[in-house]
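Hi there,

I know you've been waiting on this one. I reran it after we fixed the sequence typo, so this is the corrected version. Both the input and the resulting structure follow.
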Amino acid sequence: MSRDLRKYAHQTNVRLIIGAIIILFLVGDGLIYLIYGTTAALTGFLCLGGGLIPPLIVVLILGLMDWVVHRANRE
């Protein structure tokens, strides 16, 4: 049985990132809700969501560049 360690590392990194985002939103926004209330929690949710936009753009651009390079190297 062979192991694809690159796939395993990629899968682990994806799971860690998703877990960190879930914890950030649940714990961070949950504490805002408990301490300041619903309106502040909604504002915190919007700010956390807005803060994720720049990293998502970078990831999308890098993914697009990777796709282009792989496609160009096939030929």
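Quick highlight: Residues 5-74 form one domain.

Best,
R. S.
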